[in-house]
Amino acid sequence: MHKKIYLIFFVLSFSCTSNFSIYEKKGFAKLNNNNNKIISPLPKGTILKVLNIQNKESKVIITNDISKNLGSRIIILPDKIFQELKLNKKLPLVHIQSLRQNKIFIAKKTKIYEEEKRVNKKVYIEKINITNLSKEKKVKDRIYLNFGPFYNKTYANQIYKILKIKINSKNLVFKDYKDKNYIISIGPLNNLKEFDKIYLKLGKIGLIGFDIKIQ
């Protein structure tokens, strides 16, 4: 009898703790110049981890407001958080992930360990051939939208044809085909204005399941 009670308690405990569904998304943040509110498509009070993809700095935040009409942005952040995460205001690429509330432990801003920052000092760079980058023209970061990878080449070709027609630009859509690893890309996009135009076109045909890369 006691064993049955313990078993039922275990099942109920597990079911109660396993209903939490994680929300995560990668995209561009918008700067909130009006106030310090954090606005997301999730309910007010949602705990989120925001990661600056380019420098790996992260911070746990709590949303103040909800908006279902963020358009091509995935979250609106105040200037204070932009500064803390050292976000590039021209291309503020972030990854957001919902977290379960933990009364025992509350994560704070993640910092890179000092050992990692000093790792370049431990490398014997005299043994490495280094190109003088100061003489090279600096390449501007640009946005690429990647669809895939797809296992099926036929399906990848269908996506490619649709994008070629709907994007209406021969230079923006291209293939990166490897066996059973087919990728379709849109780019390069020079800034967020160009990204917004493409995002609007993709939204109309229901193709917004892309991965964003900055190169």
Strand portion: 25-35%
Average predicted confidence as pLDDT:
81
- Spatial order of the strands forming the largest sheet: 4-3-7-1-6
For the terminal residues, how far apart are their CA atoms? 63 Å
Output the helix-strand order.
HEEEEEEHEHHEHEEHE
What is the CATH architecture descriptor of the largest domain?
Beta Barrel
In helices, the fraction of residues equals: 25-40%
Q: Major sheet: size, sense and barrel closure? A: 5 strands, mixed
Helix-strand makeup class: alpha+beta
Name of the top-level CATH class of the largest domain: Mainly Beta
* Total helical elements: 6
Tally of DSSP β-strands: 11
Tally of individual domains: 2
Q: Which topology of the largest domain does CATH recognise?
A: Barwin-like endoglucanases
Cα-based radius of gyration, to the nearest Å: 22 Å
Cα shape: globular
Unreliable stretches (pLDDT < 50, length at least 5) are 5-18, 103-107, 119-137
CATH homologous superfamily title of the largest domain: RlpA-like domain
